[in-house]
Every structure is written in structure tokens, then in C-alpha cells.
Amino acid sequence: MTKSNAIQVIALTSGKGGVGKTNAALNLSVSLQRNNYKVLLLDADLGLANVDVMVGLHSDFNLSHVLSGQKDINEILIEGPEGIYIVPASSGIQKMSDLSELEISNLISAFNQLENNYDYLIIDTAAGLSSGVMSFLQAAHQVVVVAVDEPTSITDAYAMIKVLKQDYNVNNIWLLSNMVDDFSHGDRLYKKIDNVATRFLGNGINHLGSIPLDGHVKKANKCQKVVMSFAPTSMASVGYQRAAEKLLKIPPAIKLRGHMEFFVERMVNRASL
User: Fold this and answer.
1) Residues 6-39 pLDDT 10s
2) What domains are there in the chain, each with its CATH number?
3) How far is CA 144 from the centre of its chain?
4) Predicted TM-score (pTM) of this structure
5) Which residues are bridge partners to 87 per DSSP?
6) Which of 71, 76, 99, 96 is nearest to 86 (CA)?
């Protein structure tokens, strides 16, 4: 991808928890950063934030302090693995659809105050179909649904895709096949879900790639590191590198050119519909 002044907004979601979505958000962020792009990771699981914990970081302040006007967004950013920056959230923050007018104003203003120009905003949303999650997904340029090859995950991933396509007219959807036996297994999982989407929804989805089940991921989690840094030549790391390469090939967006506050304004406007 050729660099432009348009930030690329990529939101990761899942129909259910426990499929490795936050791991994916962190490792994709690191992969993009390694390609000399500036990456900001927003922990948007506003009820059960855990991005910072997963990589052994701690911040005394988080998005709630920005929403209340106590802190500038630059004061809460924490530097994460390999130079990515993280916007930490915290448990108990109201859902996006419940924000007051003052909080919405503070949020839009906060993103306008970011001192660095970021190339990518990666959003780690909560699992499920809440209105808060949907407001993030509608506003993103690309939506990545993370799924594993288990009946409940497949069913919930399809449900998420169906709601996005039919209720919110979102079609820029990618599947990330996670914790699969090998890359070919990931391809089969994608085809399984894509075939159902094509048959019943009229069109299918894209495949971002496959992340093999890899013992290095569990070891990295125990050490509070991303597998890309902990074991850069592992199969999981290779999978994330390949997925990042696909993201880099997506043409730069033109609808959200320039400052990031346009994304936030678009997001909260959709949440209020």
C-alpha cells in the first residue's frame, strides 16, 4: 500500500468470545508497524478491556478520563510492543450508544488532538451484536470477523456477518481463520462460512488468512508478550505476517481522509441513529 494522508480503520470482532480476537488485534498491529506504518490500537471492549493486560502494561488513566474531560488523549496513550500505541479502555465505561452529548463532544475533540498522524487505527471491539459494537463496525473501512472451527463459533460468525450485511449494509467483511491445524484447514473454514454467506445472503466475504494453532501463542501470553515478538518465526507469526500483507494491499480509503476525528464523528452519528 502506498502511504497517503488517509487513516485506515480496521475493526476486529467476533460472534463469541474466546476465539483469540484480542491476540489477533495486537499481532496484526505489530505486523503493520513492522512495515513502517504508524499504528494506533483502540481497546474498544468498553466493558471488559484487556489489551494492556495481555502485554503487561498498566496505565493509571484510560478512555473514561478522556470522556470526562479530565485528560487529553495524548496523556493516556501507552506505548505497546514494537512501537504501536494503545488507547486503553476500562471496565464500566458506558456503551457508545449511551454517551451523553458532552461525552460525544469530548471524544471527537480528543481524537482531533492526537499529536501523531497514524496510518492505521485497529479497533478491538467486544464480542457480540450490541449497538455499541455495531457503531464501531459500521464506521470502519474494513471489518475482520475472527472465528475458529467450532460449531458455536461458526454459527455466531455467520450471525455477525448476516446482521452486518442485512441490517447495516456492511460488505467490507474479512474472515480470519484462527487456531486452525494448518493453512489449508483455515482455507476450508473460510470456504465453509463463505459458501453459506453466498448462498443465503447473496454475496460472500473475503479471507484475510489463517493463524495456525501454535503452542508459542500460549507461551507468549503467559509472558505477556505478542507472539510476533516472542517467536517471530513461529507458524502463528507467519500467519499474522501474511494477513498484514493482505491488509497492506487494500487501496487507501478516500472517504475518511485526514484527521481521525472524522471517523469518530461518523461512529457516534451512526450510534445515535
Assistant:
1) 788 999 999 888 999 999 999 999 999 999 999 9
2) 8-271 (3.40.50.300)
3) 7
4) 0.91
5) 42
6) 76
